[in-house]
Amino acid sequence: MVTIVTDIRSPRLDYVLDYIFSERLGIDYNIVFEQTADTPQPVISYKVGAQSNITIAPRTYNEVRSVFNNIDFTTSQRTEQVPVIQGNVPNFMRQTDATIIDQMPVIFPTECNFGFDLFAAVFFMLARVEEYNDNAPLDQHGRFMASQSIALKNNWLHIPVVDVWIEKLKAELLTIDPTLQFKTEKFELSPSTDVDSPWCYLHKGILRNTVGLCRDLVQLKLSNAITRVMVLCRLKSDPHFTFRKILEMNNKHSIESHFFVLLAKRGKYDKSVNPSSKAMTKFVKELSKQAKVDLHPSYASCKGSFGTFGEEQQCFEQLAGKPANAIRQHYLLRNAPEYHWLENFGVTTDYTMSYASHAGFRAGTCHPFPFFDFANNRFTNISIHPLVLMDTTLSEYQHLSANDAKQQIANLLTEVKKVNGQFSFLWHNSTFANTQWAQLYEWILNQ
Ligand SMILES: [Zn+2]
């Protein structure tokens, strides 16, 4: 049992305490207003003037009240009142307040004996407060950019800071009560595959293939043209239909295969095969028998059309014979303020949390966490499974070869191992057509 002495009561503080103590540490905790002689140890004071071995209280009482209570965010107030970025805000919420303490990056440093406001910091990272700033520029797809994040600006996007902070808290608690038993966490590899289209050439219709063939010829991509013709004449298998290879590799390492399948009408950024075609129906049904399959909602479904999202869910449920309640959005297209509407569609698990442009820890953690709806100040039923790494981040955004990408992956693996987290990574089925990238995937499975 850990006692927290505080007079702040808010859904935000409740969320943080529940996450840290129940979900992560697996220990009971109690919140009290005043410490007495009978208060069970260890005690964490989160209140000015309270005495205990661990104080996480901020420099002034008003500052902590601002994080958890005073600033009442509503959707309409978002623009100027996001505490991190704009001027008229408490000092400790400004980006300049990121610093290093004991070789550990922290935000909201304070003069308490813990060195920083751990509760506010965890809340800030998990609730993705900085993404609610309407003034932050978005990328061409409307995504919050890594370059706008406090983590990348301070060069610690590659560190799961929330997990590091919780480890630090664990160590402090143990110095006071060495008998405390924490929940055991262990390092885990968690690969998954996004299927933007199961095929490169097959089942895409005569028109699309004719246009593609002409383009290949004009651009002198002769080997592509030859492969296309051979595949269409069934003299060669489709290069992107790599599912047997993926299943074999995962099975060999006793890892469950997990696929997210796009089932969308064709659009500029959604280029799969007609979801109601015989080929697609057969594909999803067969794959569902051999692996865990979930929905990969389209680009179009995240651009304001609620109907489209629902249609894709329905289509998935028909083909896969299970509810579409776990998803990863195509193009990793979701900012924090848009998460809460997933609840309207019965989504309970989301695997989208990552930046397309940079690998690392967008929410500062490599452990699943419940999503907190910051704009409406409430808990949600959505569990977020953060993604550490996507293949195309390295190959397309950073233009790395498979070989050059290895060091970056090794560094991320080390960080995840240090905090016994989940190394969740995403390879597209099309990526397995490239031998070097397929080998790199297997190299990760061997770690
Ligand atoms: Zn996709």
Instruction: Give the strand order, joined by hyphens, for the main sheet.
Output: 9-8-7-15-14
CATH homologous superfamily descriptor of the largest domain: Glycoside hydrolase/deacetylase
- Overall pLDDT level: 87
Helix proportion? 25-40%
Strand count, sense and closure of the main sheet?
Answer: 5 strands, parallel
* CATH domain class of the largest domain: Alpha Beta
Number of strands: 15
Q: Are any ligands bound, and if so which?
A: zinc ion
**What string, H for helix and E for strand, traces the elements in order?**
EHEEEHHEEHHHEHHHEHEHEEEEEHHEH
Shape verdict: elongated
Give the assembly state of these chains.
Answer: single chain
Category by helix and strand content:
alpha/beta
Termini separation: 36 Å
> From the coordinates shown, what is the CATH architecture of the largest domain?
Alpha-Beta Barrel
Report the total helices.
Answer: 14
* Low-pLDDT residue intervals, each spanning 5 or more residues: 70-96
CATH fold annotation of the largest domain:
TIM Barrel
Portion in beta strands = 5-15%
| Count of folded domains | 3
Account of the 3D structure:
The chain is an alpha/beta fold and 447 residues long. The protein has three domains: 2-176, no CATH class; 188-199 and 240-445, TIM Barrel (Alpha-Beta Barrel), CATH 3.20.20; 200-239. The chain is built from 14 helices and 15 strands. The protein has helices spanning 11-25, 61-70, 78-81, 118-126, 150-153, 161-176, 205-218, 222-232, 243-252, 278-290, 306-320, 391-397, 402-418, 435-445; strands at 2-5, 29-32, 43-45, 54-55, 99-101, 104-106, 188-195, 258-261, 292-295, 326-327, 349-350, 369-373, 378-384, 389-390, 422-428. It has a five-stranded parallel sheet with strand order 9-8-7-15-14. Strands 2-1-3-4 form a four-stranded parallel sheet, with helices on one face. A hairpin with a 2-residue loop joins strand 5 and strand 6 (104-106). The longest helix is centred in the C-terminal third of the chain and has 17 residues, at 402-418. It is elongated. The protein starts with a strand and ends with a helix. Residues 70-96 have low confidence and may be disordered. The structure holds zinc ion. Residues 194, 196, 296, 330 line the site of zinc ion.
